[in-house]
Amino acid sequence: MERQIVLATPWVAIILGLVIYFFVGLVRDWLATMYYRCVSREWAGSASIISGALTLFDIAIVAVVILSRAWLNIVAYAIGTGVGTYIAMKNTRRK
Length: 95
Description:
Layout: H1 10-40, H2 44-68, H3 71-90
Helix pairs in contact: 1-2, 1-3
């Protein structure tokens, strides 16, 4: 017997989707910011690995966000990207 997850209302599914898109955007821009930090410090190995991860991420996830054609998902993703950049920049230690 299989168990199915039943969401109480459609609003729960919508909010959960928005939260997921937000965190996807956050992680993507955090990775992008880390990539630029590695490039600026001339860490070729780390920059190459993150660049490959970003390419996979963009193809797999960003395409889904754009193809969803739901403007609220796109807005949640955009807000997540801004927060991701902010977090990555705030955690930068200055010498």
